[in-house]
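chain below, 288 aa
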Amino acid sequence: MKLLCSLAEVSRSGYYRYLQTNSGPGKDVLLVDTIRSIQEDVRYSYGAKRMARYLTLAEGIPINHKRIARIMNENLLNARVRKRRHPAYWYRQRHRERLSDRQCGPNILARNFTSALPLKKLVTDVTWVTFAGGTLYLSAVMDLFNHEIVSYGLSIRNTTEAVLAPVRKLVAAKDLEGVLLHCDRGPTYRSEEYQTLLEQYKMVSSYSRAGNCWDNALMECFFGHLKCELGYVDGRNKRQNFHHVAQEINDYISFYNERRIQKNLGWISPIQYRNQRYGEVESISVPT
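prediction:
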C-alpha cells in the first residue's frame, strides 16, 4: 500500500480517509437496521459494549464497540439510562447521618454477592410502581448464583402477607434449609411473621445496615433496570391500568431471566448461565 500510494503521489492517511468518507455510511446502513431491531427487541437496554458483544456472539458480526457507539449516537439508538435522583454528596451525607442507627440483625452477606451454587444465597426486597388507579407493589427474590428472579409477587396493597408471599411460594416449592436470605431493614422484614417463616424452614436471615442501600445492591439494581427499561421513569405508567402494568412487569421478568445478557455472567442470560453450568433443568422461577 505504501508503494501504491507513492506511485499515485497521495499520502496513505489521505487514501484511508477517502475510503472511510466514501464507503463508511454505506457499510453502516445494514448495521443501523440490525441495531434498531435488536434495541426494540430488548427494550433499548443495550449500550455500545453490550450491543457489540451481542452482535459478535449471536449475529456472528465481529465489530468494535467504538464503531457501535458512533452508529447508535448518530441514529438515536442509545440505551435508556437511569438518571441520578440526587447529587452524589446527598447519598454520602445520608449514609453518615444514619450510620449510628441501631442494628436490627447481622449483615451476614456483607456485600459478597457471589454464590457457587444455585439457591444458596438469596436477596429480597419490595418496590412500588404507580398506575392510573393507585400503586402496584412488586416483591421479588433473586438468586445470587445467576441473578435470576426465582420468585416474585404483585399486589395493590403493601401488606406483610403480600411481601412475604414470594418467599412462602419458594420455600413451599424448594428445600431451602440453611439458605441465606438477605433483605433491608423494612418493617415487613423485621416483623414476627417474617422471622417465624425463616425459623420454620431453617433459613438464615441477613439484614442490610442502616442507610446502606448498597448492602442489597443487586436487588436495587434490578428494580432500577426494570423501571428504566419499561419507561416508567417518564411517568407513562401513571396513565395505565393495573392489569397492563402487571402484564408488562411479568413479561419483563421473563425477558430478564431468559434473554437479557449480563456481563458478569459472561454475556449470557441468567437461565442460560444456569443451564450451561448444570444442563437443561426445569425452571425454578415461581411467579405469584
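The chain has two domains: 2-74, 107-287. Residues 125 and 186 are 9 Å apart (CA to CA).
thats it, cya
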